[in-house]
Amino acid sequence: MSSDADHPQTARLVFGDKEIELPIIVGTEGEIGIDISKLRARTGAVTFDPGFANTAACKSEITFLNGEEGILRYAGYPIEELAEKSTFLEIAWLLFYQELPTKDQLREFRDEIRYHTMLHEDLKRFYSALPKAGHPMAICAATVGALSTFYQDVKFDDPAEQRRAAAIRLIAKFPTIASYSFKHSIGQPFMYPRNDLEYTENILHLMFSNPCEEYVPDPVVAKALDLLLILHADHEQNCSTSTVRTVGSSHANLFASVQAGISALWGPLHGGANQKVIEMLMAIKEGNRSAKEFMALAKDKNSGVRLMGFGHRVYKNYDPRARILKKACDDVLKKMGTDNPLLEIAMELEEIALRDEYFIERKLYPNVDFYSGIIYQAIGIPVDMFTVFFAMGRLPGWISQWLEFHRDPLSRINRPRQIYTGPKLRHY
Ligand code: ACO
Fold it and tell me: Is 312 tagged catalytic?
């Protein structure tokens, strides 16, 4: 690489008898990318990068993440400050527009979202066709996809306005969709949203109220939920967000794109880990295995067991969200006057892991999912709804990344290459 004092200006690639210069792209926080967009045209070769661990698929102004130092910022604002001072809807605005809203803007945004919280009555009947034992992530993905069929005729002249209208509807309706997947599973009536409540209070009302009794959402629980949603709101180009961008890159509509994102998030290596963590902690609590035995299994490659909630593709340091959540676990449990033995087991596992050579060598630290389940459980969210709540939090991130894709003049349909390793030509 040729370089000056600050950063290299170009990268040189020697390939056979050719030598080519590749431009360098530098991000606002000094991240360096080698622009290989003309590589195949100039050399005939492609890059090989399984899991895209070295590939920046886009430029983005939304979220900055430094995994080595454990830094996460939304549009420049540190996650620690946002977690302390902001609210989930303010964060949604911040991610959409990369600026904090004024008071008036936030009020209008909240009012607009409140106006769209109900589901079409016909869509409610959709749930009765699905098994009560069906996983709520599958039900939510199907229902979000079905929104396309209800809003295909809502047309705006300006495509950007059309996309914004879909975004507002999705943020507004997702709590209703999610809570109905739970109500369906337990056979309780679906509650209408209450537009006089704040966003997270309404979520609690949709989940836990019933027509026979008065329900007043607990402000401690609403605040804890708001924090969880803020911490999950965006995480740059992770598996589900890349999926949303990829589906959107074919110009599929927002509902179809987010439906795919929900499916990607469901997997246990991604958002599904929060459910797996609590199942792991419960197995240890119920005496099926001790923490030490579990750790031994997690290190044994033949066991097929991993320490769920540990490790991350990007963080090679403590996930800042896990740090905030670990403290929040303590606060929420204290405020609610409850105790959760799972928190102690989690802390014991963490302590063993952070001193164990296997985890140190591989830079495996707790991720956001390690402590989130303990709070979800404390505030009464059923275990198989944990990942649905992750999706609820991630929604503004998915949407803002999808909107950004549509604004970006460099956007093209996502279409990776491959290195073919199958049989050579043969004849039938
Ligand atoms: N427990 C035990 N070993 C682990 C763990 C774990 N949780 N995570 C990674 N390792 C080991 C791997 O076996 C591998 O070891 P090796 O080098 O000896 O082969 C090494 O650490 C690197 O792991 P990879 O799987 O190559 O790392 P990758 O970046 O592909 O995967 C992932 C990251 C999927 C998060 C992984 O750490 C994992 O499976 N963690 C558990 C599931 C989890 O908590 N997922 C949530 C992630 S956060 C989120 O999506 C919201």
Answer: yes
